[in-house]
Write a structure and sequence with these properties.
Number of domains: 2
Shape: elongated
Helix content: over 70%
Number of strands: 0
Distance between the termini: 72 Å
């Protein structure tokens, strides 16, 4: 049975590892760095995790379920623009609440996704393809402006996760202002204009 102290130490290690991996990437991170960040000895850390790989796998496993939940939440029976805007807001909120997790994900992808390729090519691919079909149906029904569903999803990822992954750059360019200040209003305006169908007039017909 896992004791309270063991649970606490495991949480300390994972939180420390998230800090180190998000800053250094998998290749740059070491067990020594993680142990120092956690305030534990390396032998103590190895009691809970036998390798850097096992710590990284535990972090990714916890992250991936959370990361795709907003995409799963898109309701095919809902209002198309409302559903997509809600998805965008969820992703932007996650960028603000989980910046280290976003950078962990980004670092893994930049390395060629060696530890995530299986998940991306199966679970994530199936989910994205399902949502692509939903968006295609909305476009075909005239409920959204003609738009490529894949690039819509990729654009939402890029325009929201940027605020986490490039937080330092944004703060420098905005004299330390909150990177998310004004972001939601701007993205709402952007996507509202992008997604709204243009009314067909008699002249057009």
């Amino acid at each position: 049975m896992t004791t309270r102290i063991q649970k606490r130490n495991r949480r300390r290690i994972l939180d420390a590892a998230l800090e180190v991996f998000s800053a250094q990437g998998f290749r740059g991170a070491t067990l020594d760095q993680i142990a120092v960040e956690a305030g534990l000895s390396k032998p103590n850390l190895l009691y809970y995790f036998d390798s850097k790989e096992s710590i990284h796998a535990a972090l990714l496993g916890a992250l991936l379920a959370t990361w795709i939940d907003p995409l799963k939440a898109i309701d095919p029976a809902g209002d198309p623009r409302a559903e997509i805007m809600s998805y965008m807001r969820h992703k932007l909120q996650m960028a603000g609440e989980f910046p280290r997790e976003s950078r962990l994900f980004a670092n893994e992808i930049l390395q060629g996704a060696p530890r995530m390729s299986g998940f991306i090519s199966t679970d994530l691919k199936a989910l994205v393809e399902d949502r692509v079909r939903v968006i295609q149906g909305w476009v075909a029904a005239g409920r959204l402006a003609p738009i490529d569903p894949y690039h819509l999803i990729f654009s939402i990822w890029a325009l929201t996760q940027h605020y986490a992954d490039f937080d330092a750059q944004i703060r420098l360019l905005r004299d330390g202002a909150d990177p998310l200040d004004g972001a939601e209003a701007f993205l709402e305006m952007l996507f509202e204009r992008l997604l709204t169908p243009v009314p067909v007039t008699q002249a057009d017909g």
